[in-house]
Amino acid sequence: MLSQFFPTDLSLGIAQAVIAAIISLLVLLLSYWQRLSMEKEIFIALIRALVQILAVGAVLVFILQGPLWLGVIILLLMMWMAAREAARRVSGIPGAVRVTFYGIFLGSGAVLVVMTFLGVIKWQLESMIPVGSMVISGGMNACALALDRFRGEVESHTGQIEAGLCLGAESEKAVMPYVQKAFRSSLIPRINALRALGIVWIPGLMSGMLLAGSDPVIAALYQFVVMAMIFVASSLSAFISLHLIRRYIFSEADQLLLQSKHQLQK
Amino acid sequence: MDQIPVLELQALGREAQGKLLVADINLAVMPGEVLAITGASGAGKTSLLRLLNRLDEPTWGTVLLDGEDYRHMEVSALRRKVGMLLQQAYLFPGTVAENLRFGPLQQGKHISDDEVDKLLERVGLQGFAGTNVSRISGGEAQRVSLARTLANDPRILLLDEPTSSLDEANRLSVEDLILDVIHHNGMSCVIVTHDLAQAARMADRVLVLEAGRMLKVGSPRKVLHA
Ligand SMILES: Nc1ncnc2c1ncn2[C@@H]1O[C@H](COP(=O)(O)OP(=O)(O)OP(=O)(O)O)[C@@H](O)[C@H]1O
Ligand SMILES: [Mg+2]
Fold first, then answer.
1. B84 — contact with chain A (CB < 8 Å)?
2. Which atom of ligand 1 lies at the shortest distance from residue A263's CA?
3. Disulfide check for A237: which of A94, A107, A141, B26 has CB 3.0–4.6 Å away?
4. A138 pLDDT more than 80
5. Of A238, A206, A226, A73, which is closest to residue A135 (Cα–Cα)?
6. What are the sequence ranges of the domains in chain A?
């Protein structure tokens, strides 16, 4: 109906955004009516989302015309930001950024390189950047989950770990059960996502392709490919960062450096 | 009769996070000797004990094990030779037998069922091999922990308040058990305890720590009744 009044793509897009904003304002009224005192927050969040996503769109206009190496640089930058975000979520481990960066860089990077080489990801910015960002953020979440769980497990099992060391176990052996637990817990959300794929939710990528008029079967296949890439990148990133962090928490002489909070307070 | 000490602490000390935990400890432990470390809470007893199997790193000084600087030894071999019992048992999930097998397995040695039974008999837990550790009492757990350490056949036993979490009856029987094992195997022993009567019962010599430093050292009678 709108398209009758707005003949160009851009004007149609703007009109759609305005309508979406008006609908969102209903929530604002609801908030006012229910005295949630959240009107200001809601208003700012809406404006902010619009400005941010428009800015990204505008930047992409330029980037997508740029050379391919720009895409590589952008992906590296994304990995660095992802590493910092993952490290921030597990504060308290010294050198965490290095660990998360290597994890994400090697884990997600390997998947991106192999898939681009095989042609599954097209050697084009339109394909590299969005797929790359999904794969990298998968790696980031898995790293953060794995490391957070690992730190928790180690902190609550310092006694068992040191008992192992006292019996002549090498540090890697003494923390192995906790590496396994952390790895397992980082895989669970991804496995659940695979399990629910298509039944409980149709993810953004496939929805987008459908909206853009792709054949549903093609869209489904590509969605599966991307999910699988995210799955592999997440697992590799978590695995690599766990095996790195395992060394950071011990000294050269197999002494546990990360002490439980309980012990430090005592 | 000149013997080399099994353990020789040389100007041993440690600080952590800017805090002095232990300082300037010079002491020799002779073969077969039982040394008790006592002192007020926070005096640095645990901190000192943890330096003896290099579970923590000395900031100053070193320890000689049979005359050899322990920093030149492989750390897992050192810790097998100098076995340590922590304040709690900290058993690994699984059966009692799996716990006993853990130490030798670290060097690729699998100990037989017979040997497991022998170790359990030594600590008074005949028939416990297949029992899951979630089903045993605190006193039994501390015995399993002792047997687990003995499976490595250590020369020296370090004990951090091994009976403090036990009730009176268990305390005396675990104490007797430890003395029996030490004498039977000809081991030396360093035991941390804040129980002066226990120190007097068990030790050949007593070291009293205060704020990380040696206050007194000597025979139990001299040190504890002075
Ligand atoms: N890693 C550490 N960093 C900073 N301070 C520590 C550390 N470990 C221990 N301390 C502090 O050093 C002091 C000595 O601790 P330690 O555990 O050796 O005492 P203790 O004599 O064994 O006491 P207790 O009888 O209560 O077990 C305490 O004040 C403790 O808080
Ligand atoms: Mg202590």
1. yes
2. 8
3. A107
4. yes
5. A226
6. 1-63, 67-265
CATH topology classification for B7-88+155-224: Rossmann fold (3.40.50)
In Å, how far from its chain's centre is CA A249?
25
By the CB < 8 Å criterion, does A181 face chain B? no
Against a cut of 0.90, is the pTM above it? no
* pLDDT higher than 60, residue B101: yes
CB burial of residue B117 (10 Å; 0-12, 13-18, 19+): middle
B43, β-bridge pairs: none
B102 contacts on A by Cβ (under 8 Å): 164, 167, 169
Q: Do B76 and A168 touch (CB under 8 A)?
A: yes
Segments making up each domain of chain B, as ranges: 7-88+155-224
Tens of pLDDT, residues B140-192: 999 999 999 999 999 999 999 988 888 888 888 889 999 999 999 999 999 99
Q: Length of chain B, please?
A: 226
Structure tokens at A65: 């015309």
Contacts of A262 in chain B (CB under 8 A): none
* E-only strand ranges, chain B: 7-16, 19-29, 34-39, 60-65, 68-69, 82-85, 156-160, 188-192, 205-210, 213-218
